[in-house]
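S., here's the first fold you wanted:
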Amino acid sequence: MFARFGILTSLKGYRPEWLGRDATAGLAVAAVAVPSAIAYPAIAGLPPEAGLYSSILPLVGYALLGPSRQLIVGPDAPTMTVLAAALVDASMNLPADRLAAASALALAVGIFCIVASKLHLGVIGVFLSKPILVGFIGGVSISILVGQIGRLTGLRIESEGLFPPFVELFQKAGSIHWLSVVIGIAMFVILQLMTLWRSPVPGPVVVIVIAAAASAIFDFEKMGVAVVGNLPRSLPTFSLPDVMNLPLGELLLDALAIWLVSFGSGIVTARSFGARGKFAVDADTELVGFGAANIASGLFGGFPVTVSDSRTAINMTVGGRTQVSSIVAALTLTAALLYLNDALRVLPVPALGAILVAAAISLIDLAGLREIWRVSRMEFVFALIGMSGPISLGVLKGVVIAVAATLLYTLLKEMRPRDAMLGLIPGQHGFYKMHRSKPARPIPGLAICLIEGSLLFFNVDYVKARLTAIADGLSDTRWFVLDASAIVQVDSTAAAMLDEVCGMFAERGIAFGIAELHSEPMDLLKRAGLLEKIGKPMIFEDLEEASTAFTNDSASK
């Protein structure tokens, strides 16, 4: 019954023997979630409890409506960085306004996800191509690294960008709190050692325990080290964010940017884990799960979330089979919020900075950047544009510019579709591109031209010029056949251009024909009257039929 309404579809066919693995995975996910839940809100200037709220209710929302059995949602660095930029752009200075704006953005992102799913707009996720995402997340990582200067030194760094914070650090060097520096370095070293030793216990969990214990024993707070401070001992409560004093127009635009980045990075993460776990990922149905998670976050004092790579990795590694692990993780985090308040209160802020530094470094995909450079220099430029956004252009502007650059590059490529003249190789079947296959020869009197790309309003002038140039180079040709096998789209402007081309060949005494025309272009050209003008005898199913018809026509003359 639930599956019919899209509720708890991930639990369909649940087996009792899976409960043990799911429970263990849920506990592990919660253990990994606590450090990031407390650390990530600092990126956007939000209190730690907002991270805990954003790590509890979204798990329940996705478990109810999400399609995947193993994906785990939660805060992630790219989304938090875009959120931070949105809050800065909207000039949110008061803590209450920032919390309300973050919750409103989560609600808006969730609604965008649901609407996009109903409109089957999951394909929009591909606009953030791999080069852009690799570069963008690399830029986010550098931005996060720079943002930890204040937490690791005990200074108040007010400058933004890549270099100004270092200038400010140099100017305030005399006020550095060196105990904070030592704590941050020590915790970072522990994180690297845990990674090097491939510890079964996640490094951030170890750091949280060690740092909290050391702070309690030595009273770091009295020594001037900043600590997390008191967390609320109450559960998140249902409430609509107070948006009366917020710039709603700006927030809606920011929500679109956050939705694009969170969905783009989330669906890429989901597909990578889907390939690893051998489960299918459908973008449109995932949008429903993402929407439920964000709406749940926004209604209970949280901020926008997406698929969490670290939590999903732990869930799959430990052996979580269904979203029961998410429910167990949510219950465990709730218990931590209620009963571990004192332990989390004394947690040193430099330890959180060390966790964010380690996370940021792990997100920089140098191997991916090298591969992009090796494969395509142009796409490497797009990666650099994506990287420059969080560092210098501003995250939101960087996203828009990177996506626009990709679309422009794609449009430029489509403006000049490739073409090739086709011929036969003696003793072999099929037609071959003559510029690539030297033995290929044209059929005397018959010219066959392949156009590789759709014919649309922005490239018709180029295609017409190419066909005219080809016609000028023909001699002793009676038929010209356009191979339309690679033309998947044709618009009315292209239909008018083909009509002119047909007339041009007719003036030269050359019959114009089309082979392997797809159904949609055929319907449009039929409505445009072009197929009637060409004539049914010159419309061919394939090139073999065209060559046979030409041979028969030649034999009859």
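And the second, which I think is the more interesting of the pair:
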Amino acid sequence: MLHFYTGEGARWRVAGMEEETGTESVRNPVEMQDEQILMSAILTGRGIDAENSAGFLNPSLERLHNPFRLEGMELAAARIVRAISENQNLLVYGDYDVDGTTAVSILMNFFHDIGFPASFYIPDRADEGYGISDAAAARIASSQMDVMVTVDCGITAKRQVDAIQAGRAATGRPLDIIITDHHQSDPETLPDAYAVIDPHLPGSTYPFKALCGAGIAWKLVQAVCLKLDRPELPMRYIDLAALATIADIVDLTGENRIMAHFGIEKMNRDPHPGIAALNAVSGGKSGTVDATRIGFMMAPRINAAGRMGDATRAVSLLTVRNPEKALKLAERLDATNKERQEVQEKVFQESLKAVAARSSAEQEPVTVVWGEGWHHGVIGIVASKLVERLHKPAIVLAVSGGEAVGSGRSIEGFDLFEALLSQSAGLMRFGGHSQAGGLTLRADGLDEFRDGINRYAQTRITPEMRVPLLDLEAELGPGTISVSFAKRLSSLEPTGQGNRPPMFLIRNAAVIEVKTLSEGKHLRLKLDKDGLPVSCVGFGMGTRSEHLREGDRIDVAGWLELNEWQGRVTLQFRLADMRLAEVERRRNRFMLEAVRRFESLDCDGDWLYNGIVRSGLPLEAFFPSREDMAAVFRHFRKIPDKACTVGELFRLSRQLSGASGGSLGFFRMMAGLMVFDELGLFSLTLRSDGQYLLQKAEEAEKVDLDDSELLHFLQETAQRLQEN
């Protein structure tokens, strides 16, 4: 919580302002109060000008691109139509995550609706890994299939496709393989297939590149339906396409926004039975599905099927037609998801221990950890949690039988696919995109891989990239902290990747009330912004109540939301972060600098003298009295020896000031502790991790404060200031 007191360690970047740590900028007051101006600024920040704003705010199916503009689509659609008309054997091969299983489900629902008996195959995550596995390739080569369509995978499976075709050549029964994928491709490893559909293909002119695997599967169905003169059919599966589009965290712009918009509309009006059941078991009410509910409640339960073993259960749920059967299937996935959460937490804790066990891990730009027997199904989530915790890319690998299967997540500005490509010589398989990827390698090559990818990242990850960053749309004033403006913002839905929920800054608000909810888990604040009461909630922020006091002036970052209860609509500000107001942060930054110089003996009277004069702070903030020293001694003699972060020490100084009925302050408290360290009553040690280890002397003898040179130094500086 150091940044709460000083602003250090986190950046709040406000569009159109120079809002960085230690600086102060003020937006035009008119813009802070005008809903229309702010709304236009938000759209502009998303690259949407006035001419295109109506189309963005009001998605239309007419803005979907012709599916035949995708390279390979004409060949693929014609081949599927021939398979249907000749009643050939067709296999849909998909990935085991929510995007892959949903893509499979879209095709299987379509084939069911036209009376065509297709089959599907999804590899086992643990035994086969991502994409077309060698084991699957062998089975497919010996099968009776005439056509295979991959969804959400296959773009890097050149070796496996070649193996299938070689096996088929021996039997004299050809297999036409259609690859549909949305991951980035390497021209050197493109599979030699009947048709390849991927908007990232070299030279592709398709106008929209950000489709997910299920989005491309939906476009494939759209193309086939046009050839079959059934243009209305694809809308039956738009809710499935929306589910995967939101869950796969692709940009919610362009075609993705259109599919998500109409898909959510269908989920709330006429959902597929599997989606309705999924919403019910995750605590949702009919007609209340939105992007947040899909991403955080529904999608994890679909993903749990593949993560914990059998991904076909997800396809069963998303293709079932009976609501009662759908509910039973959804309940099983809900139980599987609970199991996933337990396994995930165990692997996460073990991964943190693995990081801590290596002294060089902190200096490495990419976290690479592995463990024998770690569950394949949770390593991707664990990688995401490590990125969130450590603020750098992370790759987590599960080792078993001499092989390591891994999953990685990245940070903004670092292309993980390119990083994996740089290490491709040592990888058995890999794939993904800029922010996420999967890989397989021999276990005896793990050390070499970790060293290699860190060498690659050394010059590509800057210190700034590792600093947590909040992108804020604007500063709000009382005129825009309103129900009417929140209603305007709802027209941006669905929000997500590429169209983030708009986050705002409320500056210099007074804390009126501090409460915690759910046994201290969540935070509830009442603020006053220029006479306007603002109700705030911070989920998972209950411990931050320790740092807040009524009367504090704080800046808060978060989202404007509407709550509806019994027909009454109220406004709420959901907190993302908070910190003391700039005046107080500036004061604390100076105090912290003074402490750091003081403790390193790099402080002289001139520096402290000039700094105090520039700060405009009262002398009492810097020079502890004997009463202050006694209060510090009594307080710290009562608490156990411990290591404290600088943020915790700021909090302790505020608590100590409140307990003594005065304003002891951070510098005076720290100066007191350093004096006691000098006199042998305490040991105050600054550790390499930035924490202060505070320990009491085992046998403290009575001392005379006049023996402290540090205290004399402070007193002499105070005298100079008083004389001038």
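Why I say that: The first strand starts at residue 11 and ends at 14. The domain at 584-723 is CATH 1.10.10.10 (Arc Repressor Mutant, subunit A).

Talk tomorrow,
H.
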